[in-house]
Target: Nectin 1b isoform X11
Amino acid sequence: MAMLATFWIVLLVALNAPAGNGQSVQTDPSKSGFVGDTVELKCLFINGKPPVKISQVTWQKLINGTKQNVAIANPALGVSVLTPFKDRVSFKHPAVRQRTPSSLEDTTIVFSSLRLSDEAAYICEYTTFPAGNRENMVNLTVFARPVTKMTLTSPTIVARTPKRKMPVATCMSANGKPPSVIKWDTTLKGEATFQETRNPNGTVTVRSNYIVLPSRETHRQKLTCIVTYRSERFTDSVILNVQYEPEVKIEGFDGNWYLNRPNVQLTCNADANPPVTVYQWKLLNGSLPNNIEIKNNTLFFKGPVTYELGGTYVCEATNSIGTRSGLVEVNVTEKPMAQGPPGGIFGILGVVVVAGLIVGVVATICMVYRRGQKPRTETDNDLTDLPPAHKPAPPPPKKKGSDMKGGLTSDEIQVVHLDKEDEIQKIPLQPPYYDMAQSESTAFTDKPNSGHKDCDVQYAELDTAALASSPSPRSSVQTAGDLVEYATIQPSSH
Model:
């Protein structure tokens, strides 16, 4: 009895003892794919020496701690794929499908048309004899690429009064796993809102609205939505279509409507979406003149301008959104307004050139005038250039009894000595005939005395004492002035 118990114990230990010859199962740590893609889940059996016998290979799905059979390969029974994987899971190696026992070392399966529900941990289990069971596990992750869409919140966006903000565009990334990131790219001022919704199948829908204040300025503005999903990037754009009331402006009055001016007109220009359908003209505090013709948005004034055309003109423009008006005050003058100087850079250059010419002419006249004014010394020495009317009378003949030397020039006469010192009388010398300065004793000149020293005559030094004691100074010479004039005109003896 004891021997029988010992036998059973040894048998149980042998059956449950781990393989000591290196038997193992190899799989990928993890695999991933997108919904609808095809992935392979690798499973290889590494047999040792001596090799063990493979009895069966089973693929199982592990969900919340519970195992669910997916596919089975048995050398005797063949291959079996269970529902709901029957049409989407197969063994990659053809020998396995042909029930070849020696080919069960590679039992890789192929998943096609992945579903979000396929995401789980999968176990590849080998049943061997006498080594027992060997297994390994691979984690399968299934991604869902989102559907990105951008739309206008409304086909037509209306800018109404009073103004209020409203969403104008929506960007959505639906049924993504993991969720996407949405950003906006635009020059339009506004703000964005974001919302995430988790769907029952594990995906996430992200929605973002762009909110602005609709106006004429927001019309035809571009909005771009940028969706980033993992390493992928999607962009979509829309152009805003904003409807608004007319923006009215009257053109044609240039501020220079004068009497009898022909061919004047006023045009009512309106920026509106949708376009203006009706234009109406009015004249405040009166009725439109009779000589006016209205065509579309323009007032044509027939005939010349009169005072009756003056006043405030109003244009009302209407579209399906509303009515807006503009006005212009028309003033009629008797004569055309004076035109200003030439405008622009050419007018400025013309003024500068004219001013430069004037300055050049003045400078030339001054230079010519200064060159014509010779120094006094040059004028004094250049006696031949004097007009005949300014030349002095001829000098008296030379007296024989005189001791004075002949041939002296006016510049050499400094001091004159008479024959007898006791008969000398101090008499003021007369200026020479070439002196241009005005003097009481110079009757032939009409120019005032300039006061320059180089034009003055050096008077003779006289002995005042001797002159006072002499009873008849004219016994020797008539006058000191005659002596000087007589001496200066004598020819030089040198």
